[in-house]
Amino acid sequence: MSGTYTEAVRRRLGATRLCLGTMYFGTTVPEDTARLLLDRYFERGGRLIDTANCYAFWAEGGTGEESESVVGRWIEDRGVREDVLLATKVGSRPEPPGAPWPESAEGLRAEVIREQFARSAERLRTDRFDVYFSHIDDADTELGETLKAFDALVRAGSVGVVGASNLTSARLAAARDLSVKHEWAPYEVVQLRHTYLTPGPDADIAPQLAIDAPMTGYVREEGGILLQGYSPLLGGAYTRADREFAPEYAGADNARRLETLRTLSEALGVDAGRLVLAWMVGGEQPVTPVLGVSTLAQLDEAMDGATYDLPPSVREELDTAR
Q: In DSSP terms, which residues pair with 228 in a beta bridge?
């Protein structure tokens, strides 16, 4: 059964062009608004929903359980568990709550994975996750212990495929080699920060990591790995005058890329954010955007962008802008 389930998840993930991120559902995005967003995403054909067992502990009044709880109530109320692909994460939740983070991250020991699976499943009102991610790397726990714990969940039919978020290409390669050696379920989905602009070479965004050339090279050579990119629209900075780009996106190269993006946006009459999403999903190495939104208008624009086909000449200009 687990093999059939895993194959079905793989097929559906491969056909997904946009993932709905729910990081702030239940905290800065009130539950009634979150439910409207989930409804619209589903009505428009969206099926992949992304959450975590720590969203959003840093928001005012947040505990880290809000997002999963909101998503779980919506799934149960709508009766759509069989229709959606559900992804959640483990490893980043502060332990104990309120302790300095990321030093206090719970990590990826086997007992943590088993315990947090049960807690997330209760909040999400399900007995399985289609994708279960390691949220941030845990250098203090042997990779084998982590991978074996994930593999047990896959073999039990409790997880479809295993993913890794915020992992370097070197660590991903080491993990996949170990999985092959022991015939464990490998990491098949990788989620990192990604947008049209790239963080400067000296930027420190840890524990987050951005998709880079070594990662795309490894994914291309290895095959069988899906890339997902979070924070694709940089909080609206591409299109909103009141939003500034984060300091890590400063620099001459990014300035030229941004100028190219805005020139093409104006010439095509297409929102710059929509171009960014189209550029991500339609490239030689496709990247599925994990989109966080707080209004229906933002969601509609993003879903339109994910289905927009860039003319080849426009893609070439975006690809080569430096």
A: 191, 288
